[in-house]
Amino acid sequence: MSLRQRFFVHAPLALALLASGCERAPERPAVVDAYGLRLETAELGERLNLFIWSDYMDPELIEEFESAYGVAVALDYYDTNEAMIAKLQAGGTGQYDLVVASDYAVEVLRGENLLEPLDHALVPNLANLAPRFREAPFDPGNRYSATYQWGTSGLGVRADLAEGGEPAASWALVFDPAAGVGPFTMLADPRETIGAALIYLGHSANSVDPGELAAAERLLLAQRDRVLTYAPFASARDLLASGDAVVAHNYSGDVLMVADEVPGVRYLIPAEGSVVWTDNLAIPSGAPHARLAHAFVNFVLDGNVGARLSNFTRYASPNDAAMPGMDPELLADPSVYPDSAVMARLEFLHDLGEARAAYDRIWTRLRAGAAAP
Question: 31-150+279-332 adopts what CATH topology?
């Protein structure tokens, strides 16, 4: 049986919610729901609009939330943080009640006043987050966000198809023609792919140095004709599973999803270093159902729910209360929970401020096949 098996969903406690259109009873007491949230008589709303990466939420958990709160959940998807940020910048904040944004994306959205502060009184399960996720540098004290999942970026490899046998963990597999072991994909994500080139060259993935960025662009342009495709994470996962790609630049959990089904797949964190990231739940400014969004954040941070979420996604959980319910093999996997020596080689991406434009120009030229100026 696949590690990505479904886990039995215990029926949630019924909530005494008023039906739409019924008269409210002023004396009605607050209700404590199955996930620790004290609900007052305030209207939650009938629908939660969630903007999230695809394949990143167990459908059974969505059904459980809908049943518990008597609401519908509508999911909309994006492939990169940049696409999500652009939609919110273009006036999309009022379309969504909740978004899942990576660390540096939270910085960008905060800086542009596109997020509502979290009301901690409505999210008692914030206490379940491990201390380091309650004081993250991009959002100290969880003022605007709560960590959803975390993981790393690296290389998925079909060791069963690789020329010359199982390869060493190095970015050389995609940047050095002499070290290649077969067709490969790179993420269709400017921060990740430009960051990988910078790291291979010995620089920070957050570099804003013009000389270092120019060197990274030259490396990527030299690589371009050998790239099978610049693929969103889901497409990269499928190409690795089919064997069309022998190496896929991708996120840890997505590679491990493939490994559950294809025994020859390995996830490698390159020896030169890579990116570690968190994805975070945040409420856009003007969210139509902010109170319901808080209820969903609290739901996800429940210990049992958090365990089932990570068992589904194959990503690491930030939730201390989730650990007893997690798959023991997942907890013991160094690809999911790297040791301190590996963590020392990893870095978080940060908001680049005005230097974002330089990355955008590099990415535009790279995708167009244009030479650097």
Answer: D-Maltodextrin-Binding Protein; domain 2 (3.40.190)
